[in-house]
Amino acid sequence: MLDSITKLLDQISAVFLVLSLITGIIQCFFGYRLLKFWITLFGFLLGFLLGYGISGQLVSDSAAVPVLAGIAAGLLVGFLAFKIYLMGVFVFCGLLGFYLVSAISFPSGDGWTVLAFVLEIAAFVAVGILSVKFARPFIIVITAGSGAYAAVRALTSLAPSVTLLQVQNSRLIILLVLAACGIMLQFLMTADDSRPRAAGRRR
Question: pTM for the complete prediction?
Fold first, then answer.
């Protein structure tokens, strides 16, 4: 019985790693184009978690109510995130910055824990502000970098027998190359977005 559960958990973990690899590659090469989709999806998930968590505390004798409340809150927050685009950009890119800083290994200890948290919050605010002020270039860089990191991290877990992926310096080189390719491709694909549109047709 225990072996069956362990095997099932390993299979679920492998599925999540494959999904992480796929979404990381998509994020790396098409992050700017798919930003509104990611923002809407993130808004839905955030709204669902908040709605489910809050209603679950208020209504403890029903399993359906928290789920329905979570779905309703998710749809509402997802819709608002899609409509209030810049706010969504701030939160989404800020969380990517938070995620990248949280991936850094700090020494153990209360002081380091506090410092890590302060740096994560600072990264959230700084990246959020910069992504709004310099939307296209900053969004391209942050989505390519975070997507490359997620893809390399997932690939490392999926292929433990590949020696190249188990060496930190090799992983860093692969990450930088993948991120650079993603940045260049996104800039090429979105070149028209940076050109000012004509105010009107010439008569």
Answer: 0.65
